[in-house]
Amino acid sequence: MSSTEPFLVVEDLTVRFPTEDGLVTAVQDLSYSVEKGKTLGIVGESGSGKSVSSMAVLGLHDARTARITGSIRVDGQEVVGLNEAGLRKLRGRQIAMIFQDALAALHPFYKIGGQLAEAYQVHHPKATKREARRKAVEMLDRVGIPQPDRRVDDFPHQFSGGMRQRAMIAMGLINDPSLLIADEPTTALDVTVQAQILDLLQDLQREFNSAVIIITHDLGVIAEMADDVLVMYAGRGVEYGPGKEILTRPQMPYTWGLLSSVPDVRGDTDSKLIPIPGNPPSLLNPPTGCAFHPRCVHSDKVEGDLCVTTMPAFEQGNTGAGHLKRCHLRDPEVIFEREVLPVIAPELLEEK
Amino acid sequence: MSNINLDTDPERNPENPETRHAPELAKPGDVSHLSFAEIAAQGHGATRLDPDAPAVLSVDDLKMYFPVKSSGVVRRTIGHVQAVDGISFEVPRGGSLGLVGESGCGKSTTGRLITRLYEPTGGSMHFGEDRVDLAKVSNRAMKPLRRDVQMIFQDPYTSLNPRHTVGSIVGAPLAVHKVVPKDKIKDRVKELLEVVGLNPEHYNRYPNEFSGGQRQRIGIARALTLNPKLLVADEPVSALDVSIQAQVINLLQELQAEMGIAFLFIAHDLAIVRHFCPEVAVMYLGKIVEIADRETIYGSAHHPYTQALLSAVPDVKQAAVGGRRERIRLEGDVPSPINPPSGCRFRTRCHLAQDICAKVEPPLLQIGPRHKVACHFAGELGDAPRTPVTAGLLGVDGQGSPDPSVTPEDIATGPGYEKRWFDVKSRQMVSA
Amino acid sequence: MFAYVVKRLLAGVLVLFLVSMSIFLLFWYGPNEPARVMCDTKTSNRCNAERLDRFTEELGYNNAWYAEYGEYVKGVFVGRDITVAAQTTRCDAPCFGLSYKNGKPVWEDMKERLPATFSVAIGGATLYLLLGVPLGVAAARRRGTVQDKALVSSFLFLSSVPYYLFALLTWLFFSLKWEVPVIGDTGYVPLTESPTAWFGGLALAWICLGIFGCTQYTRYARGAMVEALSEDYIRTAKAKGLPTRTVVYRHGLRAALVPIVTIFGIDFGTLLAGTIFTEEIFDIEGIGLWALRAVGQRDLPIVSATALFSAVVLIMANLIVDLVYSILDPRVRLS
């Protein structure tokens, strides 16, 4: 029970899977940490490894096939290599995970109340059925589901999308976990429902003082919810720092690309939408050197062919303040302000 | 809502092309020789509005009711799902109209009505220069018209037949409509593949060899084969990664500029809609509650639902400010479309609702040169009127009961905009 | 749900009418000399043209088929008296006619054979599930491993062996060669007479049916389990910290059972309709063999009755399967 380091510490995590075509490295040398009461947003696209890495925190990968190295410490306890019994103690109790599509993630044949009660009883074996049910109703009420004593006997398909997601959150929080991992919690939901869910998550975090990891590809969600942001690409962390920093003064061309690809609902209509050219990299045969270089239009600013030959280290940039980036560019903040920002968000430039 | 299953966890889905595809399936992928300026030049700002363009599609009072049958031995119709209940709008030639709304609002049904995948229960859809009414045309007569109205679907993983090669998917419309002689079909297909940014030599491959974004491009190529005048895009990018979304949006913008295709852009992502569509219509429970040009909708929305919707959208600028904006929170759930609330359908969740809202349905009233709204208390955010602005026009008093002393005005209910409109501030009809 | 059941039963009755009518027509317009069999039996094989005519007349073949069909249907509900060769036999409801071969009411013989068929079916079907499902689950959990592949391939081999060969060999060894006690004495003994003998007489039949049929169920169960285990809710269950056993059975198998049960219902119905090889080899007087013989002997009433029985069984099996399905899967609502 360490009290000096953050609640969750991930260090040099590497996850590999053998497939028919060869060894796929889904996550490589990933390091980050989350403190209680804080929210980490993990941003990435397909193949970035964001979901794989968080499933590793709970040890959800098939131990027979997945090859995991590195360290994941939850409240001081090492998770990598932990036996199934130890992992089961953590899952649903100290660490809870909620998933994207609540309709698929909840068992269609069991009542919601039953599934919540099950989550409670597995970690409170002495609790009676009635106690567990009472707790389920209490949690449903806590997440804002109307008439919880009646809806506790409904099946998942009888709930609307937003309510289902709330029910899943209720199920995740029923044992007061210290860490909640939300994997794309609002992607399949309407925007007003999404706002409600995000509000709920923030309220609950404040109440329970839990650490929260939100995994998403939606930069807007990150902007509103995350204290710290980790950007992932091709299984590695490529930028990490306080949310405000990352989104206003990013220092890695991939992050620039993400910001340029996303239109802002309140931005200048002359801002251009500039897609990142090319496709996500193959994890079987990743590019040499920096994984992003085939799609990077700024690699000409780096001398020689460093981008092609050498993987940049994940280290602090010029602005310090805990802002890490994995890039060979020497003065990215200048490039961003001079070249990128005027094109994608001219109005922000004026504000500076 | 999009059921995104970008299941890229290699353990659970090692076959997923997102993690596996060979780079040569796209056009030359190494772009590091290009400079940022060059890439930026290929990007587009938001599409501009052409106010003088004539309408290529004019929808008037379109209705789609799906019957609900009772259970039991004899199946009687006991009600109707009023999926689309009298909507009117126009899509300008070569322009775009965005159709936004949440689950169950009827926007997808509208898209399917335009392409005649359903036959409307009522209303008209006048298309093209001849103003053919797509609603009344027979299935047979519809066939040549299908060349002009095409659809792009949401899910690139399920909307392409996995047993057909890309070439046959894209070439099928050409074969069916006999537009091009058989021996020329392959060439045309290759041309189209190139236009959408795919390698033309891959016409013999199967869809599962392509990534999501590439599949969506195939779907677009197929929709373009017959040079349609109107493309109905039903959530074309929601199932794609963020950076691929931008690529596809860019592609659509380019195609629109080059080929003069009009778009009915159905989506729930308000930011993307704002970028692509100079005009936007907001739907709720089968009705259009507000329709206006982009600046008006996003800058001075007058309908409380639009305002709530906009306030719920998270935005990246927030990071600079920190914390969360004040949101308008909507209470309750969307009511059932089988038994919608009387009067204004939004009233059960609206903080401005009064008696009149339950008694009288607000008409879609034009309140600006290019702005219509359906609300008795239409006003800017935080500046809603206390008494209903529509009372006088409709011949009712402040509570919604008929008022014989006031003569109702003739309110234009068709698509398109008039030269006279009702100003909500002064409560008078004004002209341009 | 009640309305649904009523609807299905009504539809079922309609099907029964159609089935019985078709068979009737088959015999009316089918074989030559339908009355031949009875003529031979009653005259001790001294049937000539004149006698044949008389029997043809008495059995009603000279009348319109729908009139006779009407009589038949009436007989099913209230019974009737049938007069042949100056003998009037009372045939009580349900009357399916008199056997052309032995002149007895068909229903009497059928009543004796039904328990045997039921016993075989129940035992065999139980073994399908008891053997097939656990093996399928085990294979699914070890998907891709050597054990899984060994199981699948050995079952493939097993299912390519012709059933009658398998059953015959079993009988030859257990009954004839090794003369295993209790089990070796195959044949049907009513349960009420002696439970041990009943069990023993049927054991080999059950084992053969079970082992043979379970190959299918292993396949179904394996496939259904693999699919169920790859669903998102399994991941959620694991993430809740549930023990593996709970995840696999309470969450996985519960979902996989639904398609298995659906198939099982139909299979059970088919078993009830008669298993000819099993009955022949293991000396069980059931419906299947009886029906087969009747076809060969052109004994119309028996054929008709057994066909109706099969139809009833399958209609009921389908209905029960649909009802069970809606109970197992709360998303399914019967309409």
How would you briefly describe this protein structure?
The complex is a heterotrimer of chains A (352), B (432) and C (335). Chain A is of the alpha/beta class and 352 residues long.
Largest sheet of chain B: 8 strands, mixed
* Helix count from the secondary structure assignment of chain B: 13
Helix coverage percent of chain A: 25-40%
The gross shape of chain A turns out to be globular
Find the count of extended strands of chain A (DSSP E, 2+ residues). Answer: 12
Overall radius of gyration of chain A: 21 Å
The strand order across the widest sheet of chain A is 6-7-8-3-9-10-12-11
Number of strands of chain B: 14
Instruction: Kindly report the greatest chain-chain contact and the residue count on each side.
Output: A-B, 89 and 80 residues
Average pLDDT rating of chain A:
88
Helical element count of chain A?
A: 14
For the terminal residues of chain A, how far apart are their CA atoms? 45 Å
Structural shape of chain B: globular
Category by helix and strand content of chain A:
alpha/beta
Which percent band covers the strand fraction of chain B?
15-25%
Strand order, largest beta sheet of chain B: 6-7-8-3-9-10-12-11
The ordered H/E elements of chain B are HEEEHEEHEHHHEHEHEEHHHHEEHEE
What portion of the residues of chain A fall into strands of 2 or more residues?
15-25%
Largest sheet of chain A: 8 strands, mixed
Low-pLDDT segments of chain A = none
Instruction: Round the Cα radius of gyration of chain B to an integer and report it.
Output: 23 Å
